[in-house]
Specification:
Elements (H helix, E strand, L loop, with lengths): L3 H6 L8 H13 L4 H9 L18 E2 L6 H17 L5 E11 L9 E8 L1 E2 L1 H4 L6 E8 L3 H11 L17 H8 L8 H6 L10 E7 L5 E7 L2 H22 L10 E2 L3 H32 L5 E6 L1 E6 L2 E6 L1 E3 L11 E4 L7 E6 L8 E3 L8 H7 L5 H8 L4 E4 L16 H10 L3 E14 L4 H21 L2
Parallel strand pairs: 1-2, 16-17
Antiparallel strand pairs: 2-3, 3-11, 4-8, 5-7, 5-9, 6-7, 6-17, 10-11, 12-15, 13-14, 14-17
């Protein structure tokens, strides 16, 4: 009978793998297997040696960004520091930062505007919780933009939570089937229905403007996969953490990965594709609600994601706030991408250049040089109403919750001209058209009322329970 002591004597390292290995080895020995066959069988059970972090600088990354002000110098220094640490992750083979890059999280966390290539691995932390954050455009045509703004304000949904039961937008059947058929998603079908055709908060928006080339009115939305995406992200991080402990304990937790050549990896990849389909459908469901209210139809529409994992050969390209800029990055791509800057600037319509050094990506927007809390500190002396009026002059800007979110005003973002200039300087994309702004809807400050209502609802339920005793 083969024992753990014997395996250790053969040179194997002890671990949880020995239990199932011993069962298989003793069955094989009973069937007449010799020592060479038994050792070969044991090899299939022993986990591979732990992957060590790479030395700093071992895998370089491309910097498609330059600083022109002291704030930008601090921002770029932080981006370089965190990317340098990030690139020590054993699976990574390349990286790049876009002109809109800014830190998001602790040291070693992929920054917004960051791109990395991984060999045979999917890193949930590198596409972030806002899986498939994306931008979609519908060209409506000859119509007064004020009508579009009014219709959109009636039918869109921002803030926390999903739509009320009586206001749900039907989930496409094929998307629902995708959820039910995937083990990562089948218990998320209810959030998928509740959050469908909703836009969240933060920098997500509904934008109305005119194409500079034709003067046609267009509707643009920006949001991600909402609660179902966030819940998939949490599941993915848990699975990745299990692999990290076995494969590379030195790797930072936020950079854990799921090997693609595992059942977990293949199922997680399939789940990402379903979430992608959900998000695309969510965008155009909102657009269709607006069109139906107006009695209009779409003349043209397309979309692109900028928080996702893309596959090129055996390489998995993780873009966090970075736009794929190569022809055919997805089957539904028309070769054009959308790059919004801020509510007072045009949305760029661009064609990517597939720059090898930038891993084929271009920026997703304007980015920030400082955090939302730092923006609040810098502008604490300014009256909100005056700041909003000054920064949105001439525009129809609305906040869904009724109160402005000053962290989303134009001055909170990087200088748009600087970002556009660097897109050209680093030859990342060709701007082929602009959607000049007419107006924009954003979530605004919704949190206080939302949480107040939740607390009141809990109190009411407790009161009812006490009455029933």
């Amino acid at each position: 009978m083969i024992t753990g002591k014997q395996l250790i004597g053969w040179g194997y390292q002890p671990g949880k793998w020995m239990g199932p290995a011993l069962e298989a080895l003793n069955r094989a020995e009973a069937d007449g297997a010799d020592e060479a066959a038994l050792r070969a069988l044991a090899d299939t059970f022993q986990p591979p040696p732990a992957a060590a972090l790479r030395p700093k600088g071992d895998v370089p990354f491309h910097r498609a960004i330059e600083a022109t002000t002291p704030d930008e110098e601090r921002n770029v220094a932080q981006v370089v520091e965190t990317m340098t640490e990030l690139m020590r992750t054993p699976t990574l083979t390349g990286g790049a930062v876009m002109p809109d890059a800014c830190p998001a999280g602790g040291l070693g966390t992929i920054p917004v505007g960051g791109v990395v290539a991984a060999d045979g691995a999917i890193h949930p932390g590198m596409h972030s919780a806002d899986i498939c954050c994306s931008v979609a455009i519908t060209v409506i045509g000859d119509i007064r933009p004020a009508r579009v703004m009014d219709a959109a304000a009636e039918v869109t949904h921002f803030g926390g939570g999903g739509r009320a039961p009586g206001a749900l937008v039907p989930l496409p059947e094929e998307v629902g089937v995708g959820f039910r058929d995937n083990r990562f998603l089948r218990d998320l079908i209810d959030p998928a229905r509740q959050h469908f055709a909703t836009q969240g908060d933060g920098n997500h928006f509904l934008f109305v403007g005119r194409l500079r080339s034709t003067d046609q009115v267009a509707l643009i939305t920006h949001h991600g996969s909402r609660k179902p995406g966030a819940m998939l992200y949490r599941k993915g991080m848990r699975v990745a953490e299990d692999y990290r402990r076995r494969l590379s304990p030195e790797t930072r937790k936020q950079n854990a990965w799921i090997p693609f050549d595992s059942d977990d990896g293949r199922d997680y990849w399939a789940a990402l594709q379903v979430i992608r389909a959900w998000t695309k459908a969510s965008h155009f469901a909102i657009h269709d609600l607006v069109l139906d209210a107006l009695g209009e139809s779409a003349e043209e529409r397309f979309w692109n994601e900028h928080n996702f994992v893309f596959r090129r050969g055996d390489s998995f390209l993780h873009g966090k706030g970075a736009t794929p800029a190569w022809q055919g990055f997805a089957e539904d791509s028309n070769g054009l991408v959308l790059i919004p800057l801020n509510m007072a600037e045009p949305v760029l319509i661009a064609r990517g250049k597939d720059r090898r050094e930038a891993l084929g990506f271009c920026p997703h927007g304007a980015g920030r040089n400082w955090s939302r809390s730092e923006d609040a500190r810098r502008n604490a002396h300014k009256l909100t109403e005056q700041r909003v009026k000054r920064e949105t002059k001439g525009l129809d800007v609305r906040f869904w919750a009724g109160r402005p979110d000053t962290g989303e005003l134009p001055s909170a973002y990087k200088n748009a001209e600087t970002v556009v200039r660097q897109i050209r300087a680093f030859d990342l994309a060709e701007v082929v058209d602009y959607v000049d702004p007419y107006g924009c809807i954003m979530a605004g400050e919704w949190q206080s009322d939302f949480h107040r209502r939740r607390i009141e609802a809990k109190r009411a339920r407790r009161k009812e329970r006490r009455k029933g005793r």
